[in-house]
Hints:
Elements (H helix, E strand, L loop, with lengths): L2 H4 L7 H7 L5 H11 L6 E5 L5 H8 L3 E5 L3 H11 L5 E4 L13 E6 L8 H11 E14 L5 H13 L3 H5 L5 H8 L3 E13 L1 H9 L12 H15 L5 E12 L3
Parallel strand pairs: 1-2, 1-4, 2-3, 4-5
Antiparallel strand pairs: 5-7, 6-7
Helix pairs in contact: 2-10, 7-11
Amino acid sequence: MSELKSTERFSDRVEDYVRYRPDYPPALLDWLHRAHGVTPSWSVVDVGAGTGISSKMFLDGGHRVTAVEPNAAMRGAAQRWLGHYTGFHAIDGTATDTGLPDAHADLVSVAQAFHWFEPAATRAEFRRILRPDGLAAIYWNSRRLYGTPFLEGYEKLLLEYGTDYTSVAERYADEDFMRDWFGEGYRGTAHFDHEQQLDFDQVRGRLMSSSYAPKPGHTNHEPMIAALRDLFDACAQEGRVGFDYDTRVYVGRFG
Length: 255
């Protein structure tokens, strides 16, 4: 799927994305600071910033952030949410054409959007916009597929009712890919536990924030929501279920 087409996948899911997608564990930013010498003085370019979830992590850590996001609806949501931060700026751009000057950033950040990017052209653009000794941090939350009845049932639900779930799920990179992508500049990886505790309305919103979840009017939508209700009722403890994630981060440089 081309990057251009992928930029529009979430236009009609922005509100669910803002309200129900997970943030990132504080340990991730702590690791970048402690293990890789990143400091709050470093300027961050957050590429594919979406509604600003990843940008907020850096803003709260004291960084100045330029959010690069091609989807106007998502970029607007980020501006409404984060516009009160004096260090925040959002621009229209893509991973292969950010529109930023050479050597502009100390750190390039990419979260969930990385799997939509064209790898070679993205690497070239990141190398251009980073200062020579700057870093790139690529990270995402991977929903755990096993370990609890809810997680296993949710995966079966997506496989049965999702529109193009399998092709999207298979796009996420593994460690071998990331090592190759960074090449000699690869500096390391870390994994962190992360979790959301969600009631039914939140689980439904979390599901509908996904681009492969059929929208109302699709033949799979009502059966999917009914199956989700049954799964939730069977698994909930005190009205909530756990959405468990492995948060993975890869760091390197291109200079």
